[in-house]
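Good morning,

Attaching, inline, the backbone tokens for the sequence recovery test we're adding to the shared suite. The designed sequence is right after.
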């Protein structure tokens, strides 16, 4: 960090100290005094910490989250507020599409919903958003924030253990029961960051622990972040928001901030405005890809058109970057003495090992050294010391960052890039088996970014495995459902219904028309009955009486359709969502409140009548979590093309 940056951070912390003191004095101190009144003097003396624990915690955490280490700056430190572009949260489940731009602390949003879930894909800025809200809550003296990075939880490390470790002062520790009692009094804003980073092997236990903790401390406000995950259905009382893609002018402003209005950003923005580069507009909507674009361009002054090329150029930039503080000619020597391609080979193995090990991205030193050792054993022709390689990936090729005793990938998507490269370059004839295993995995969404990167790296293998299997399953589906239908129903509507039912199972249920009559316990019991399934949908009434509601159970592979819509838009299309209602007499055929009624393909089902068929299609479209579908005609044509290609490649003369 430069002397100027260091001074800037000291100034920020100096200005923040009185804010933290005022916040602790007005909120924490009275809580601790009330807590002391409940116990004997001896218990108070030896067990009840004072407000200094929270003051120390807030100072320590404010400093940590104020500083960002990014690949853009070769993992050097910058002040978050200097490079933050305001992000906008959108609630897509409401008819109005509620929006909230995070400029200062979003008081109205937090007060209105109490429990906010922020989900979005890789690189949209979820963790950055949490850090910004943490800082704003202190700057504006709104509440006491607590930040929990969920990747650190496991079956052996519960959420209360993590909070306790953070808040414990050097002089006195909080007993767990006392801390929980303090938290149960309310008044805290608890950030639960990175649900998708919890290892799969610990997911069930950790999720249950988080839910139990929220239940016991429900007087607090909560913000939970994650990539889209089916397991998030267990947090049904959270209001879900997504991050709105940033606009082109915002992307340009972000680029300018990276080099403080310097020459690199000016030249890059000038090139991006050229008509020939209009097709990379998608990359400018994602803050991470904008940062990777800057890093890649800064290194080679070329603009890559595919994500995996972005990552390769970012890797090259970090490996070859000159230390400008010592002159352009000085490049940090590598402790392990490996060249750029051999270093890449070792990282590929580590990235794939992380993918296999529940996509773990953070490790203790010994855990990371073990991964390096396994990678060295795999790369039999390479000779280096594990500790030297560890030093390199933290300092000279800073693709990992160190936070106390923890080492973590600079960004999860970087690990996914190296894993995808390993599958392509190092797995030989097992490549297809690995891709199919990911396709069949019940939590395929965990591998979605890897599959996205892999498609760009090796479209041919992807198409002959994952795409072929998906279309083969789709073909079987179209041949076995809605076979016997009234000829009065247009074929186009039946094709739409077939596409809607692929990997999806919509259902309806009744609720009282008055909100005051809704039985929350019975409603939650219905949802718990679906606990082994994935379901989605906005709870909006679908008829004029306001009683009939629709949700949708879906297979995890449904997420592939959205991914492939960007690769093959003619086959994987976007629905034209429009309001739909069904005839009110159907309501009277479903008599029990909170009883799921699954919409079958039976001819006698009233939802399949000629009068209702098209409206029900619109109804199901509106409750689907994914706005995309497979076009039957184009999909089956593509499947036949793939079959011919695969057969041709099996031919003995293919390579002659």
């Amino acid at each position: 960090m430069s002397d100027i940056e260091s001074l800037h951070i000291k100034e920020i912390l100096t200005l923040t100290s009185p804010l933290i003191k005022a916040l602790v004095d007005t909120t924490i101190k009275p809580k601790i005094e009330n807590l002391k009144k409940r116990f004997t003097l001896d218990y108070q003396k030896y067990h009840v910490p004072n407000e200094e624990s929270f003051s120390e915690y807030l100072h320590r955490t404010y400093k940590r989250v104020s500083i960002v280490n990014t690949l853009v700056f070769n993992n050097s430190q910058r002040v978050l507020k200097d490079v933050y572009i305001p992000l906008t949260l959108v609630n897509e489940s409401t008819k109005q599409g509620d929006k909230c731009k995070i400029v200062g602390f979003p008081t109205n949003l937090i007060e209105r919903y109490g429990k906010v879930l922020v989900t979005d894909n890789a690189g949209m800025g979820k963790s950055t958003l949490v850090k910004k809200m943490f800082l704003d809550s202190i700057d504006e003296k709104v509440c006491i924030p607590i930040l929990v990075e969920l990747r650190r939880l496991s079956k052996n490390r519960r959420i209360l253990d993590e909070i306790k470790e953070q808040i414990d002062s050097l002089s006195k520790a909080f007993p767990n029961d006392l801390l929980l009692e303090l938290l149960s009094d309310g008044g805290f804003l608890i950030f639960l960051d990175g649900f998708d980073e919890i290892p799969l092997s610990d997911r069930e236990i950790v999720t249950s622990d988080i839910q139990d903790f929220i239940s016991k401390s429900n007087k607090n406000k909560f913000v939970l972040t994650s990539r889209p995950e089916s397991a998030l259905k267990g947090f049904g009382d959270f209001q879900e928001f997504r991050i709105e893609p940033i606009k082109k002018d915002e992307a340009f402003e972000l680029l300018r901030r990276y080099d403080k209005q310097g020459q690199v950003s000016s030249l890059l923005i000038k090139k991006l405005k050229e008509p020939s580069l209009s097709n990379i507009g998608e990359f400018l909507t994602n803050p991470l890809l904008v940062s990777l674009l800057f890093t890649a361009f800064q290194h080679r002054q070329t603009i890559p058109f595919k994500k995996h090329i972005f990552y390769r150029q970012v890797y090259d930039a970090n490996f070859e970057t000159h230390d400008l503080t010592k002159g352009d000619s000085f490049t940090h020597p590598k402790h392990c003495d490996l060249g750029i391609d051999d270093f890449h080979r070792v990282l590929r193995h580590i990235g794939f090992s992380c993918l296999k090990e529940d996509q773990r991205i953070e490790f203790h030193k010994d855990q990371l050294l073990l991964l390096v050792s396994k990678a060295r054993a795999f790369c039999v022709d390479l000779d280096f010391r594990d500790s030297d390689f560890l030093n390199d990936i933290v300092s000279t090729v800073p693709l990992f960052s160190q936070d106390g005793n923890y080492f973590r990938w600079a960004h999860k998507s970087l690990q996914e890039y190296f894993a995808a490269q390993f599958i392509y370059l190092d797995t030989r004839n097992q490549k297809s088996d690995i891709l199919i295993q990911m396709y069949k995995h019940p939590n395929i969404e965990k591998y979605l970014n890897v599959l996205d990167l892999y498609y760009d790296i090796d479209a041919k293998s992807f198409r002959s495995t994952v795409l072929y299997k998906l279309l083969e399953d789709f073909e079987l589906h179209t041949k076995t459902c809605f076979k016997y239908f009234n000829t009065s129903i247009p074929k186009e509507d039946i094709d739409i219904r077939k596409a809607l039912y692929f990997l999806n199972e919509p259902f309806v249920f009744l609720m009282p028309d008055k909100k005051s009559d809704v039985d929350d316990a019975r409603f939650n019991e219905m949802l718990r009955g679906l606990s082994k399934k994935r379901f989605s949908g906005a709870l909006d009434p679908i008829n004029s009486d306001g009683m009939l509601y629709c949700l949708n159970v879906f297979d995890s592979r449904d997420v592939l359709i959205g991914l492939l819509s960007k690769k093959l838009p003619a086959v994987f299309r976007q629905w034209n969502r429009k309001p739909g209602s069904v005839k009110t007499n159907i309501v009277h055929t479903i008599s029990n409140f909170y009883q799921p009624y699954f919409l079958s393909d039976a001819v006698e089902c009233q939802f399949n009548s000629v009068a209702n068929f098209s409206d029900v299609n619109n109804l199901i479209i509106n409750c689907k979590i994914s706005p995309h579908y497979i076009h039957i005609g184009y999909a089956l044509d593509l499947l036949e093309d793939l079959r011919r290609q695969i057969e041709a490649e099996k031919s003995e003369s293919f390579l002659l």
